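Request: Could I get any protein with tokenized structure?
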Amino acid sequence: MSEKLPGCLLAVMSLFIMIGLITPLTLSYAQVNSNQSIVIYKDNSTSVVDQETTMSISTPGAKLNNQTLPHQIVVALPPRLDRKIWTGTVTFTASKPIEVEVLHRYNPTSPPDLKHGEPYNAKWIDGSPVALSTMTMFSNTPVTVTNTPISTGSFVFTGSALLFHKTSGDPFTVTYTIDVVAKPLSVIH
């Protein structure tokens, strides 16, 4: 059984976060969107159900392969700092062709060698390493009514964060609906 947190409780939680009584993870929710429905279950998992229309923002000097890229992003789900991962569904439509990315913590147990290669990875805004799953199948979807290429789609995903982005620096607007739960990682031996 779960209880939905009312808006006033979210404000109180934000105050507790500022004075250090609750972990910074909850602050991520409050910073991204104060309208998200947050449910905390008895097993300490967290569910987020949200529907938003958001305009992109510029990222500060995103670097990939020693090049600065003028990224525009919308962070639908912030990176988790508690060793849990998001798993769920997102459906979206954007004003322009964009990429959808699911981020994963990138911490190889040993550095990949030349024979095996290295997964696509970068640094997050705070400098932490992330592996990127870029969903390109949603780029340049033609819409019959307007004959304008956009990005639209729906998919199930699992990862540390979810964002919409455009590497050209061209601003965009995205409307999305997410239904996810944060689950703890399991260690399998």
Observations:
- Confidence is low (pLDDT under 50) at residues 1-42.
